[in-house]
What does this fold into?
Amino acid sequence: MDISLETLHARSSVRNYLPQALGQDTLDALSALIQGLEPCPFGTSPRFALSGKEIEADKTRGAIGTYGVIKGAPAYIVGCTRPEPWAFVDYGYAMEGLILGATALGLGTCWLGGIFNRGAAGRSLGLREGEVVPAISPVGIPSGRGSLADRIIRGSAGSDRRKPWSELFFADGWATPLSEEGAGPYAPVLTALRAGPSASNKQPWRVVLTRTEGGTALHLYLKEDLAYTKAIPGVLLQDLDAGIAMRHVSVACAELRLPGSWKRLTVDPAPGPAPLRYIASWLP
Ligand SMILES: Cc1cc2nc3c(=O)[nH]c(=O)nc-3n(C[C@H](O)[C@H](O)[C@H](O)COP(=O)(O)O)c2cc1C
It folds into this structure.
């Protein structure tokens, strides 16, 4: 599956779908994406599946399902992981790969990490002891018309807005904001990161760019909202955002032929004031 920079910018959350079933070719392509997921940066192993409408249709759960938020979706990408260290970052990375793959197929998606029918999602995965369902996504053909719920959520989350570069990206430490010119060939990479989805559009990602003789490094941090990230018991919501950011950087660097990979350095490369938390570094 070719995921391009264009795909990263084409994605936006879709909450209103045409109710028609997905064709067999599309289902096969989605299954191939799931089968083809490469290992995650931190080496944990989330697992994913495609599920039908039953997640929405669990009448016993009423509004606790996706009622009112997601309309008409013919299928869902569901997944689970074991809550080991960094497992939620890996889950974000893996699932964003599926989301971008679905986007490249012309399908709509929407990360759902808040309130959805976790029980039904777990049942469709055959959830095992100790596994949790961090987030799911509907997948289908966008209806092309934002529902009222969609417009309300987009409005309250400020979905079409992103924080300015000066708040997100820094040069050599936390004192100097990084300009687009200063980022040089990494400007489109950070632009692609900034276009990524995040829970409640809080955009907790921060990046410090450093240059050494070895090349340019991007150090990823989370500016965590500590109450918010633990709002869903058993899940670290903003770790998912970190994994999504890592996926966007990987995809953008691959397309721009900026070689590198994600590593977590043993010493925090740019210690910053709390609530900044070091996640990992993209190193040449
Ligand atoms: C981890 C995560 C959890 C999310 N949970 C929900 C959710 O429960 N309900 C919802 O409607 N949108 C949810 N979203 C979608 C965000 O609100 C959306 O990505 C953000 O507002 C930016 O808009 P965009 O995706 O259209 O760029 C979630 C996004 C992420 C990354």
